[in-house]
Design a protein that fits this description.
- The complex is a heterodimer.
- Chain A is α+β, with helices and mostly antiparallel strands.
- Helix content of chain A is 55%, strand content 16%.
- In chain A, a hairpin with an 8-residue loop joins β10 and β11.
- Chain B is 33% helix and 26% strand.
- Chain B has a 6-stranded mixed sheet with strand order 6-7-8-3-9-10.
- The longest helix of chain B is centred in the last third of the chain and has 18 residues.
- The chains are: A alpha+beta, B alpha/beta.
- At the A-B interface, α1, α13, α14, α16 and α17 of A face α2 and α3 of B.
Chain lengths: 439, 238
C-alpha cells in the first residue's frame, strides 16, 4: 500500500518527476561512461605494464638497484647463483606463478654502419616475451599498444636470438627502410660491467612500439643473451614474475617478500604499478582518478540538488497532506519512509533507463571507432568505453544513497514543523494540484 | 511502543473518553499575547454526541486541536481514554491518534492519488497488529456504514462534497476509535448535504455508540445534538 502510494505520488506531477528522473538518468549515464573510460584506461595501462613492458605482476630487483644500477651496475645485479635461489623461491610458489622472465638493460649506441644513435638496449627473455605478447588480457585491453608485426614476429626471437627490434622512430633516425630487411646487420656498443667498451653485431629484423612518444627514439629490444654478451656477464638486472589468472597480486607479493627475506641477499620487490618502477602508470591513473573524482563530485551534487529542489517543491505543495497523515496516526518515520520510497522508486526507474542508455551509448561509441592520440602516446588508440556491471552497480548504489539521503533531509526538515501548522497550511492541497495536472 | 502500557489515572472514570483538567493555551501573534484557552475543564463520556459552539475566535478549534493531540497545552492535563497526553512523546501521540481518535476535517483532507478504499485504509496501514484480511474487513465495514461500498474504486475528485465527507467519516471510523473529532464537518457543504452528514453521524452515534465531539456554527444542527458546550473567550460558558 505504501509503495503504491509512493508510486502514485510520482505520477502526481509528471513533469517534475520526469525532469528529476532525467537528471538522475543523465547523472547515472555520465558516471557510468566516465567509469567505463577510466576502467578501460586502467586495464590498458595494467596489461601493457605487465606484458608489453615486461614488468610482470611483480618485479624483483637487487636492493636499491633502481637508484644505483646505472652507477654501479656490477653490484646491483643478480649473478647466476642468486638467480637460482630466486627461481627456487618462485618454484615454491609455483601454484600461483605462470611464468617468469629475466631482463637486463644498458645504455649504449646503435649503429647502421655509417650512423649511430644513443639508445637503451633492453635485453628480454624471448620465451617470456612470446607468452606475454599472446596473453588474452593484453589483446583484450591494449591491442593498440602492440604492433600487428610484433605479434607476427613473436617467434623470430626464439628462432634467431640475435634479432634486434627497433621502433619506427629509430628506424627513421637510422634510415632503415621499410619493410625492415631480416638479418640486416647492425652494431651495438656499450660499456661492460667492468667498464670496458664492447661492441657486437646483431640482426635487424623486428619492430615494436613503446607506446610512449618520449621513449620511441630510445628503446631497442633484443634477447637477453645478446645483451649479456655485450656486457660480458651472465647476470640479470631484474626478474619479472607473471601470475596465473585469478591470483591476487598483493597477497602474492607479501608472501614472496616473506620468502625472499629468508635468502642470503637483499631484494626489492615491486608491483607492476608501483610509482618507483612505473611512473607512467601511477601518473596517468592519478590524473584520471582526480578528474573522475571531480566529475563524480559535480554530477552527484547536481543530482542531489535536483532531487532536493524537486522534493522541496513537492513537499511544499503537500504540506497539509503530510499533516493529515500525521493526524491519522502516521509516525514521523512512516512519513519519512513514504517520501524516501518515492525517491527510491524514481531513482530505480531512472537508473533502469540509465543502464539501457549507457549500454547503447558505449556500444555506439565503440562501433564508431573514434581514434585519438592520448597525451604523450606514440600511437593512436581507439576511444573505447568498457562499460560493465560492477561500475553500473557502484554508480547505482551511489545515486541510490544520494537520492535516499536527499529526500530524507528534505522531509526530515519539514517534519520539524508543528503538526497544527502542517494542517493549517494554506498551500495548494493535492485535490487542486492534481486537477491542474490532469487539465 | 504500546500506548496501552502508558500511565492511566487511577481514579479515571471508565465511562469518560476525554477528561480535561484546568487546561490553558496561549499564542503569540506578533507582539500580542492571546489566551486562546483559559483554565478550562470538561468531561466527554462514552457515546456522547457533543457540539462545541462559540463565536469565531472563542477557542473552539484550539480546544479541538488540543483534545486531538495536534497541539500541546501550556498548563493542565488532558486524558484520552485514561491516558495523559502530556506524558506522551510525538510517536506515542501518533499512535494514540491512530488508535483512539478519528478526525473529520472541514475540507475533508482526502489523499487525491488514493481511491476511496485506500483513503479509508490509510490509518490501518501503519498498524502492524492488524492483518491484511482483518484490515480489508474493517475498511469494507466502514465504507458500508457510510453507504459508499459501491464507490470504493473511485478517486476523491470523482465524488461530490457530501460523498467526500462520508469518506472522511469512514476513515475516522475504520480504527474503531474511542472518540471522533470533527472541525466544522458541514461547513463546506450545502444545507441538504449537511443534514445528511449529520444524519449519518447521529446514526453512527446511536447504532454503534460512537462518541462524537465537534465544533459547529450550524444552528440547525444544534437542535439535533444531545449536548452542547458553549465556549467564550477560551472558557466554557454553558
Amino acid at each position: 500500500m505504501i509503495w503504491k502510494f509512493a508510486y502514485r505520488n510520482l505520477l502526481r506531477n509528471k513533469r517534475r518527476s520526469l525532469s528529476t528522473g532525467v537528471a538522475i538518468c543523465v547523472g547515472f549515464v555520465g558516471l557510468n561512461l566516465l567509469g567505463a573510460y577510466i576502467f578501460r584506461a586502467k586495464m590498458a595501462l595494467d596489461t601493457t605494464s605487465i606484458y608489453s613492458a615486461q614488468k610482470g605482476h611483480v618485479s624483483i630487483f637487487k636492493k636499491d638497484s633502481i637508484e644505483q644500477y646505472q652507477i654501479k651496475p656490477k653490484k646491483y645485479i643478480f649473478n647466476v647463483d642468486e638467480q637460482n635461489q630466486i627461481q627456487k623461491v618462485l618454484a615454491d610458489l609455483g601454484d600461483q606463478v605462470e611464468y617468469t622472465g629475466k631482463q637486463i638493460s644498458v645504455p649504449g649506441l646503435l649503429s647502421n654502419g655509417t650512423k649511430s644513435h644513443p639508445v637503451v638496449i633492453y635485453g628480454f627473455d624471448p620465451v617470456a616475451f612470446k607468452k606475454s605478447l599472446t596473453q588474452p588480457a593484453l589483446l583484450e585491453w591494449a591491442k593498440d599498444w602492440v604492433l600487428p608485426s610484433q605479434l607476427e614476429d613473436a617467434d623470430l626471437f626464439l628462432k634467431n636470438p640475435e634479432t634486434l627490434s627497433i621502433t619506427p622512430k629509430i628506424a627513421e633516425l637510422l634510415s632503415f627502410n621499410y619493410p625492415l630487411k631480416s638479418n640486416e646487420p647492425v652494431q651495438m656498443a656499450a660499456r661492460t660491467l667492468d667498464g670496458d667498451l664492447n661492441a657486437i653485431n646483431a640482426d635487424l629484423g623486428a619492430e615494436h612500439t613503446t607506446g610512449m612518444q618520449f621513449l620511441e627514439d630510445t628503446i631497442v629490444l633484443i634477447p637477453i643473451a645478446k645483451v649479456q654478451e655485450l656486457l660480458a656477464t651472465d647476470a640479470v638486472e631484474s626478474i619479472s614474475v607473471y601470475l596465473k589468472p585469478g591470483v591476487s597480486v598483493d597477497p602474492f607479493l607479501n608472501e614472496l617478500k616473506t620468502k625472499m627475506a629468508q635468502i642470503g641477499f637483499a631484494t626489492d620487490l615491486y608491483r607492476f604499478d608501483d610509482p618507483i618502477i612505473n611512473a607512467i602508470h601511477s601518473g596517468s591513473m592519478g590524473f584520471l582518478y582526480v578528474m573522475g573524482g571531480f566529475f563524480l563530485f559535480l554530477i552527484c551534487t547536481a543530482v542531489s540538488l535536483t532531487i532536493i529542489n524537486s522534493l522541496t517543491m513537492g513537499i511544499i505543495e503537500r504540506t497539509r497532506e503530510i499533516g493529515t497523515l500525521r493526524a491519522v496516526g502516521f509516525k514521523t518515520i512512516d512519513v519519512v519512509q513514504l517520501f524516501v520510497r518515492e525517491s527510491i522508486l524514481l531513482s530505480v526507474i531512472s537508473m533502469f533507463f540509465g543502464v539501457l542508455i549507457s549500454f547503447l551509448v558505449s556500444s555506439a561509441i565503440n562501433a564508431a571507432n573514434i581514434r585519438f592520440f592520448p597525451p604523450g602516446a606514440s600511437t593512436m588508440i581507439q576511444f573505447v568505453l568498457k562499460w560493465n556491471l560492477y561500475i553500473a552497480g557502484f554508480v547505482f548504489i551511489l545515486l541510490f544513497i544520494i537520492a535516499s539521503v536527499s529526500s530524507f533531509l528534505v522531509i526530515k526538515s519539514k517534519l520539524r514543523t508543528k503538526l497544527i501548522a502542517l494542517l493549517n497550511d494554506t498551500s495548494t492541497f493535492d485535490d487542486e494540484s492534481e486537477e491542474e495536472e490532469s487539465t | 511502543m504500546v500506548v496501552k502500557n502508558l500511565d492511566r489515572a487511577d481514579n479515571y472514570p471508565m465511562s469518560s473518553v476525554v477528561e480535561i483538567k484546568n487546561i490553558s493555551k496561549s499564542y503569540k501573534l506578533g507582539e500580542t499575547h492571546v489566551d486562546a484557552i483559559k483554565s478550562l475543564s470538561l468531561v466527554v463520556t462514552k457515546g456522547e454526541f457533543t457540539a462545541l459552539i462559540g463565536a469565531s475566535g472563542s477557542g473552539k478549534t484550539t480546544l479541538l486541536n488540543l483534545i486531538g493531540c495536534l497541539d500541546n497545552v501550556d498548563r493542565g492535563d488532558i486524558l484520552i481514554d485514561g491516558m495523559n497526553v502530556k506524558q506522551l512523546n510525538e510517536n506515542q501521540k501518533s499512535q494514540l491518534r491512530n488508535e483512539k481518535i478519528g478526525f473529520i476535517f472541514q475540507s475533508f483532507n482526502l489523499i487525491p492519488v488514493l481511491n476511496i478504499y485506500e483513503n479509508v485504509e490509510l490509518p490501518l496501514t501503519v498498524r502492524k497488529d492488524i492483518k491484511a484480511e482483518e484490515r480489508k474487513a474493517k475498511v469494507e465495514a466502514a465504507l458500508k456504514d457510510v453507504g459508499l461500498n459501491d464507490f470504493m474504486h473511485h478517486r476523491p475528485d470523482q465524488l461530490s462534497g457530501g460523498q467526500r465527507q462520508r469518506v472522511a467519516i469512514a476513515r475516522a471510523l475504520v480504527t474503531s476509535p474511542a472518540l471522533i473529532l470533527a472541525d466544522e464537518p458541514t461547513a463546506n457543504l450545502d444545507s441538504k448535504t449537511a443534514n445528511l452528514i449529520i444524519d449519518l453521524m447521529l446514526e453512527l452515534n446511536k447504532k454503534k455508540n460512537v462518541t462524537f465531539f465537534f465544533c459547529t456554527h450550524d444552528e440547525k444542527l444544534m437542535s439535533r445534538v444531545q449536548k452542547i458546550v458553549k465556549i467564550k473567550d477560551g472558557q466554557i460558558e454553558a
